[in-house]
Amino acid sequence: MRKTAEERKKQIVDESLNIIYEKGFMQFTIRNIAQRVGISEAGIYRHFDSKNDIIFSILDRMNEFGEEISEQIKSIEDPIKKINRFFLLQLKYFEDNQELAMILLSEEIFNNHDDLRKKFNSILNKRFENLIDLLTKAAQKNRIDKSEIEDIAFILQGTMRGLVFRWNLNEYDFDLKSRGEELLDTIFANFTK
């Protein structure tokens, strides 16, 4: 049965992620993608203009998940619990999608591609702004000091990246979410009132 254009695009993105995850960014070529998908290289170009266009679709997928997280935490009243859930849902996402963790860590993807770097930076900035908003609400409820909002946001964002990086280097041999919970406890033990 022939795949729809949307199904084929999803397959191309999925296989692109698998190639980056299994073999690294250097093996992320149109030829390798076409072989994995089982179509010609020209077939790839019927769905995407370039490799960068495929990466844009991967980044869109990451961005959509960020929006899903925001929806999932809306009903949580306690601001610190909301921040914890925001952080832990991201870790859970990376546990479930290890190949996307590689994109987060693959700086070479963005080094020589201004448009990709801007898109990725936009996603990171959006997550940072979400953290700032959550922390501001915690400060309004007198749970943290207002003067520390930006510092805590940087610490949380850096902790996320550093933790995922170590998890990746250690070949996923520890429970990412559990370690994240421990780190959150340490961070908020030092910053909450």
If you had to describe this structure to a student in words, what would you say it looks like?
The chain is an all-alpha fold. It has two domains: 1-48, Homeodomain-like (Arc Repressor Mutant, subunit A), CATH 1.10.10.60; 51-191, Tetracycline Repressor, domain 2. It is built from ten helices and no strands. The longest helix is centred in the middle third of the chain and has 27 residues, at 114-140. The chain is elongated and about 60 Å long. It starts with a helix and ends with a helix. 20% of the residues are buried. The mean pLDDT is 91.
Q: SSE layout and pairings?
A:
Blueprint: H1 5-23, H2 30-37, H3 41-47, H4 51-73, H5 79-96, H6 98-105, H7 107-111, H8 114-140, H9 149-169, H10 176-191
List key phrases describing it.
2 domains, 193 residues, 10 helices, mainly alpha, Arc Repressor Mutant, subunit A, Tetracycline Repressor, domain 2
What is the structure about, briefly put?
It is built from ten helices and no strands.
Number of strands: 0
Quote the beta fraction. under 5%
Task: Give the full name of the CATH homologous superfamily of the largest domain.
Answer: Tetracycline Repressor, domain 2
SSE succession: HHHHHHHHHH
Based on the coordinates given, report the CATH architecture of the largest domain: Orthogonal Bundle
The residue ranges in which pLDDT falls below 50 over 5 or more consecutive positions are none
Give the count of helical stretches.
10
The CATH topology of the largest domain, please? Tetracycline Repressor, domain 2
Rg calculated over all Cα atoms = 19 Å
Q: Percent of residues in helical segments? A: over 70%
Dominant shape? elongated
Class from helix and strand fractions: mainly alpha
Q: What is the average of the pLDDT values? A: 91
